[in-house]
Amino acid sequence: MFSVVSTIFAPFVFLIEKGFNLFLSATGSPGLSILLTSATFSLVVFPLQRLCKGYENRIGDRHERVKADISGLDRDLRGEARFNEIEKIYTKHEYHPIHSIMLGLSFFVSVPFLIASVLLFNESNIVTGAEFLFIDDLSKPDGILQLHDLAINLLPFVLFIFTFFDAWLRYSESPSIRHRFMIISIILTVLVYAMPAGLLLYWIGANVMSFLIYQSTR
Question: What's phi and psi for 150, nearest 5 deg?
Fold first, then answer.
């Protein structure tokens, strides 16, 4: 299964690795090169994200209108009668529940690069032994905070903060989508807690750039 995933995302891994090596040759700093690489690919993906965001907004508007009409139905309606009225509302707004799957599409277009970054920084030795700021080895969890003998990784919480506020501002007009991404932010923090610092740095860079691009184009 893993080999299949690696094969599918190999072109994205290749692009990220080439970008990283290019910036590394220019800066000599692995950590800075990771941030510049993630920022670069965030800029590359942005036009597609913007297109998807426009589609999201249209679907989101329909979704809210449908919810409003359904909430206005007679509460005494039950069974088939209620089902038929809801179907009429769907037809009126040219909406189908499957459309809700497309909400958040602007985020998911960047997923191939995020998965590719996992394959690159988690499975290769590209940053083994590399230092950056307070991080001793980018190929390992950062362990920046020390409480007695316990090392606490800080970067996963930094990633959570940016993901949380990005979702909070980006989906301010769609409470259901915002709530969904809040949950995703929490789950993501748990999943990546023990991941290499280089990978977390890449994701943080991508999130920050995506946030800045979005805010500048509002």
Answer: -100, 125
Alpha-helix residue ranges (DSSP H) falling in 102-174? 105-108, 111-123, 155-170
- Write out pLDDT tens, residues 201-216: 888 888 887 777 666 6
Domain count of the chain?
A: 1
Q: What is the mean pLDDT of residues 150-177?
A: 76
Is residue 108 within 8 Å of residue 51, measured between CB atoms? no
Q: Considering only CA atoms, which of 203, 40, 16 is closest in space to residue 124?
A: 16
State the pTM of this model: 0.69
Determine, yes or no, domain membership for 77: no
**Dihedral sign computed on CA atoms, order 26, 32, 33, 35:** negative
For residue 110, what are its two tokens? Answer: 């960047």
CA dihedral 121, 122, 123, 125 (to 10 degrees): 50
User: Two tokens at 194?
Assistant: 């023990």
Do 88 and 51 form a contact (C-beta atoms < 8 A)?
A: no
Report the DSSP beta bridge partners of residue 105.
none
Tokens 């690159």 belong to which residue? 120
The residues, any chain, with a CB within 8 Å of residue 49's CB and separated by 6 or more, are 106, 107, 109, 110, 210
Residue 114 counted as domain residue: yes
Amino acid at 151: A
Q: Show Cβ contacts of residue 215 under 8 Å, excluding neighbours closer than 6 positions.
A: 169
